[in-house]
Fold this protein.
Amino acid sequence: MNFNYMRNKRKNKVQWKTSIELFYNKLKYLYIISFVLFACCACAKNKENISEPENEPIVEYVEKSYVDVIVEEPFIEPEVDLLMVGDILLHDNVQNSGKLSDGTYNYDHLFENVITDIQAADLAIANQEVILGGTDLGLSGYPAFNGPFEVGDALVNAGFDVILHATNHTLDRGKKALLNCLDFWETNHPEVAVLGAFDSQEDYDNSIYVYEEDGLKIAILNYTYGTNGIPSPSDMPFAVARLEEEKVISDLQKAEMLADFTVVCPHWGTEYQHKQSDEQEKWAALFMEYGADLVIGTHPHYIQPVEMLTDEAGKQMLVYYSLGNFINSTNENGRGTADRMVGAMAQVTIAKNESGEAYIKDYGVEPLVTQLLYGIQEITTYKLSDYTEELASQNEISKKDSVFNLTFCQELCEDVFGDLY
C-alpha cells in the first residue's frame, strides 16, 4: 500500500478543513460587530425621541428610622429585715464571765448561739440596759450598774447596728460614766447608731436617726420612762431622752417628714409583769396618733404580748410590749425568777410598695432562754427552738426557781405570744 499517498491526502484534507473554519470564524466576528453597531445606533435614535412625561410620579426615598422600645422591669419592693433583742443586763456574774486569765475582757460568748440570726438581719437593734463607763470607773452590778467597754465590742462583733441607751440605768454612775460611754462609741465604733443618750444639746435636738436601704427610710426613736430618780446633770439637762409628751410628739412629727416608716423603742411598763400596763397602752395610743408604725418595748424583764393595733381610720401599728431580758443573772430566789430567763427577739420585715407606702410585710417572735452558768465565758443565750431538756437541767436558775425546765419555757411563750409562737 502507498503510505505516502495516504499521508498527503490526509494532510490536504486537514488544510482544507482549516481554511473553511477560518472563513466561518471571520464571518461570525463580522456579524457580531455589525449587530453591535446597529444596536448602538438604534438606542441613540430612541433616546432622542424620548421626552420626559409631564406628570410622572415622584418617588421619594424615606430614610428608615428605628425607635428603641423600652421594656420596664417589674417593680420589686425594697425590704428591710429588722431584728431587736431586749435587756442586756450586766449583773456581777455576767460581767465576771468576760474576764479572762490575762486580765482582758471579752463577751462574744453572750451572743455566740444567736449570732447567725443577728447578722442575717438588715437592721439589728439591742437594748443596752446599763451604761458602759469602762473599767477605770470600777465595774458594778445591781443596783447601780457600770459595764466594761468590751461589752460594746461584743455587740458590734455580733452584728448590731443600733444601740439603745435610754433606760432607767443610764445615769446609775453619773455624768462621767455617761460621757465615757458615749466617747467609747464615737471613738471606736462610729458606724454604730447610739440612741437615747446625748452629750450635747444639738444632738438631743436632732435625735431622729434614719436608716435607709434601697430608698426605704426608717426612723428609730428611743425614750425611757425615767432614770431611777437620778436627775440629769445640771449642765446636761439633755443627757437622756425621756418619755415627755411634748418631746415625743415633736420627734414623731419630724420623723414623719424624714422617713417612710417610724419605729419607737420605749423603755416603759411595770417590772415582772407579763401583761402590759394602762400606762403602756396610753403611750401606744399616742405613738399611733402621731404616725408611729412599730413599737418595740423593753424594761419589764418579762416577755409581754405582741398586738397589731388598728385605729378608726384603719391605720395599723404593731406593738411588742416587752421583749424581756436578752441576758441576765439575777441574784434573787423564789417563784418568778425563772420567768426572767425567757426573752425574745422581735423580727419584722418592712417593705415599700410601688405607690411609695411603707408597711409591715411580715412579723414574728423568736423566744430566747438565758443559760445561767457560773464560770469564765459560760453564761450565754439560746433560741428556745435550739434549747433542750439537757441544757435546761444544767441551768443554775432551777436552783433558784424549781419550776424552770424546757416545758415551762415553752408554755410561758405559748401563753404570752399565743399563735405567734
Observations:
- The two ends are 131 Å apart (CA to CA).
- Residues 59 and 65 are 18 Å apart (CA to CA).
- The first strand starts at residue 79 and ends at 88.
- Residues 1-24, 39-54 have pLDDT under 50 and may be disordered.
